[in-house]
């Protein structure tokens, strides 16, 4: 995570000014856009990591954009229901849960290079394939995490295992790979980038572990908008995001953990997130849907 300096904000503002065009009258009746990011809990964090993006988008839309901080993604759903927030950036799992409760409309997806999950074991492990994990203990990140829970669980399902009965899952967050190295668990499931970063931070060699399987790219993060917006407003916002994505992505690239470096905006449809729904059903957590 990095703090932007004053020069960075100034440059982002100028980029937004150059990109801006006169906006159609579709959004003229709105005097502001209220914005939140579901995994940040304070206005200070929102400003620290997404302040440049807010400035650029505000210039493009010719609308003030206000922060609305939420303590968790369920609070974002409540805020949408109560007309306290208009515009939300969320991960795939969060989107599915919020959409189920609010009918929030997907605007654009935000691609994340190398955003896929994997399952790995210690290099000397006798486990050779996913099927060998039956009866074993697997460390994952946290319940509902797209890359740290649902993605690895999908790999178990695709490998023929029932995640409810065939394996034991422990949610160890950042301690999962340490637990694997120490032999306290038999395998680890999580995102490729977290795996790489953890090895670098610990000074470990990739040769100490063996990847059993890696999954396909996970569904994109996305921007969604309140269902109270008209179809014309939705189309206008989507068009502006896609048209000005170069300047917006410049300001988004320094978001927390640099996770959007190399990202692109793409059109998003609700069905893009059916994989998330499939896994929630498979683990008996249909209440999230």
From TrEMBL:
Transmembrane segments: none annotated. It comes from the Bacteria. PANTHER family: PHOSPHONATES-BINDING PERIPLASMIC PROTEIN. It comes from Spirulina subsalsa FACHB-351. SUPFAM superfamilies: Periplasmic binding protein-like II (SSF53850). PROSITE patterns: PROKAR_LIPOPROTEIN. This is PhnD/SsuA/transferrin family substrate-binding protein. It holds the Pfam family Phosphonate-bd.
């Amino acid at each position: 995570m990095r703090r932007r300096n004053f020069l960075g904000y100034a440059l982002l503002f100028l980029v937004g000014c150059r990109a801006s065009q006169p906006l159609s009258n579709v959004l003229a009746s709105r005097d502001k856009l209220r914005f939140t990011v579901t995994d940040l809990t304070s206005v200070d964090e929102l400003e620290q990591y997404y302040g440049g993006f807010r400035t650029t988008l505000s210039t493009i839309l010719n609308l003030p954009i206000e922060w609305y901080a939420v303590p968790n993604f369920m609070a974002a759903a409540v805020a949408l229901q109560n007309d306290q927030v208009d515009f939300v950036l969320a991960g795939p799992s969060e989107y599915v849960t919020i959409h189920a409760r609010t009918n929030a409309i997907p605007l654009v997806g935000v691609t994340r290079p190398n955003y896929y999950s994997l399952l790995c074991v210690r290099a000397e492990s006798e486990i050779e394939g996913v099927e060998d994990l039956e009866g074993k203990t697997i460390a994952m990140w946290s319940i509902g995490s797209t890359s740290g829970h649902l993605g690895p669980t999908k790999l178990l399902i695709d490998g023929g295992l029932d995640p409810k009965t065939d394996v034991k899952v422990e949610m160890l967050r950042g301690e999962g790979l340490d637990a694997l190295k120490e032999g306290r668990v038999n395998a680890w499931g999580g995102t490729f980038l977290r795996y790489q970063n953890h090895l670098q931070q610990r000074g470990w060699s990739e040769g100490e572990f063996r990847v059993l399987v890696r999954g396909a790219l996970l569904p994109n993060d996305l921007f969604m908008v309140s269902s109270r917006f008209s179809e014309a407003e939705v189309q206008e916002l989507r068009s502006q995001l896609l048209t000005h994505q170069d300047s917006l992505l410049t300001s988004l690239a320094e978001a927390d953990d640099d996770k959007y470096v190399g990202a692109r905006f793409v059109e998003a449809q609700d069905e893009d997130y059916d994989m998330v729904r499939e896994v929630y059903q498979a683990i008996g957590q249909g209440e999230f849907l």
